[in-house]
């Protein structure tokens, strides 16, 4: 259900996008959704010009990381992995005084970004963003972090319309290679550095909540994780959703969708335009034990993806079961 927007009285003039593009500083009062539209149409603002404005703010970019190197790993680090870092390479190189830029899943106190004392930048990925374009919001935060004073965190904020996205700032040819950590000690990289009491407390809370996670080495974007009840493998896949679900259904109906004895394909997540199949694993099955079964499954999946014949009745039932167990994260 959509949240009701609070009605506000006109307080300050603002300039419409059309007027700005024409070079005219045309003041238009800020009005509540149910007040008359300032254009003079006689209709309420929400049913007139407010409709387009609302749509522009809330429109969701389904695949914000599309076109970036490592799109599947971007999704995994945003939604699934507790603690990880990745060096980022900027298209235009590093600004003077910035020795490095690093993407991190989470930062202390959930800061959107941090400019460290040495000038290096950490960009947090798992934060709420103010618009429907995650890539633009992250790029805006990164831009502000590059210009921030060393030793200061960067707060969140809405990107301006038409502002750069990550795809505009990052080198598309640079590899995207996550390093998964067992905890968040990377917040304080120098063991001799004394963390503030706030950072230390945040570090303790984050470490206590982190689920042990390991990235598989033999296949792309697959992450093993350990929970008290059972272990799981969560594998972000780049294939179009309908085609992937058909292929998974073919394998499931053929009894070829597991990763070995005691494992089971239980469903999938949908996150940022990609599908993330999930397997339940026995408690004793570690990340290394998944490497060979995952590689063999990847070969079976490639064959199933190549098939284009209509699904059989049994395969359609399998597909329906997988679809019913799909959860949308974002």
Descriptive overview:
With 330 residues, the protein is of the alpha+beta class. The protein has nine helices and 14 strands. It has helices at residues 17-21, 49-58, 71-79, 134-147, 166-169, 197-209, 241-253, 287-306, 313-324, and strands spanning 13-15, 27-29, 84-87, 101-104, 113-115, 121-124, 152-154, 179-180, 213-215, 222-226, 231-235, 264-271, 274-281, 326-328. A six-stranded mixed sheet has the order 7-5-6-4-3-8, with helices on one face. Strand 10 and strand 11 (231-235) form a beta hairpin. Helix 7 (241-253) packs across helix 9 (313-324). It is globular and about 60 Å long. Residues 1-31 and 52-57 have low confidence and may be disordered.
Could you list some keywords that capture this structure?
330 residues; alpha+beta; 6-stranded mixed sheet; 9 helices; 14 strands; globular; disordered N terminus
Question: What structural class is derived from the secondary structure elements?
Answer: alpha+beta
Q: Which radius of gyration do the C-alpha atoms yield?
A: 24 Å
Q: What is the overall number of helices?
A: 9
Specify the helix fraction band.
Answer: 25-40%
Order of helices and strands: EHEHHEEEEHEHEHEEEHEEHHE
- The percentage of residues in β strands lies in 15-25%
User: Averaging pLDDT over every residue, what do you get?
Assistant: 85
Q: How would you sum up the global shape?
A: globular
The strand count comes to: 14
Strand neighbour order, sheet with most strands: 7-5-6-4-3-8
């Amino acid at each position: 259900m959509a949240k009701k927007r609070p009605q506000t009285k006109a307080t300050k003039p603002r300039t419409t996008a059309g007027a700005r593009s024409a070079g005219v500083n045309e003041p238009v009062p800020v009005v509540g959704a149910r007040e008359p539209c300032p254009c003079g149409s006689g209709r309420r603002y929400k049913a007139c010009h407010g409709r387009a404005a609302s749509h522009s703010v809330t429109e969701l970019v389904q695949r914000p990381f599309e076109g970036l190197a490592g799109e599947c790993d971007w999704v995994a680090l945003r939604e699934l992995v507790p603690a990880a870092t990745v060096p980022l390479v900027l298209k235009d190189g590093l600004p003077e005084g910035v020795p490095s830029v690093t993407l991190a899943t989470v930062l202390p106190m959930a800061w959107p970004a941090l400019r460290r004392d040495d000038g290096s930048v950490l960009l947090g990925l798992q934060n709420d963003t103010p618009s429907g374009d995650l890539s633009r919001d992250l790029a805006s935060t990164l831009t502000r972090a590059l210009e921030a004073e060393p030793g200061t965190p960067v707060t969140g904020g809405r990107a301006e319309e038409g502002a750069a996205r990550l795809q505009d700032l990052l080198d598309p040819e640079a590899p995207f290679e996550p390093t998964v950590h067992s905890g968040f000690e990377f917040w304080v990289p120098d063991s001799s550095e004394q963390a503030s009491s706030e950072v230390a407390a945040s570090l303790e809370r984050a470490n206590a909540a982190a689920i042990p996670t390991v990235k598989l080495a033999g296949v792309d974007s697959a992450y093993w994780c350990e929970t008290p009840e059972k272990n799981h493998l969560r594998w972000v896949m780049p294939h179009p959703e309908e085609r992937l679900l058909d292929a998974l259904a073919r394998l499931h109906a053929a009894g070829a969708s597991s990763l070995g004895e005691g494992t089971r394909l239980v469903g999938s997540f949908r996150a940022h335009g990609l599908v993330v199949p999930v397997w339940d694993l026995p408690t004793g099955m570690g990340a290394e034990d998944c490497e060979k079964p995952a590689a063999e499954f990847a070969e079976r999946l490639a064959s199933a993806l190549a098939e284009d014949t209509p699904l059989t009745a049994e395969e359609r039932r399998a597909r329906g079961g997988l679809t019913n167990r799909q959860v949308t994260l974002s």
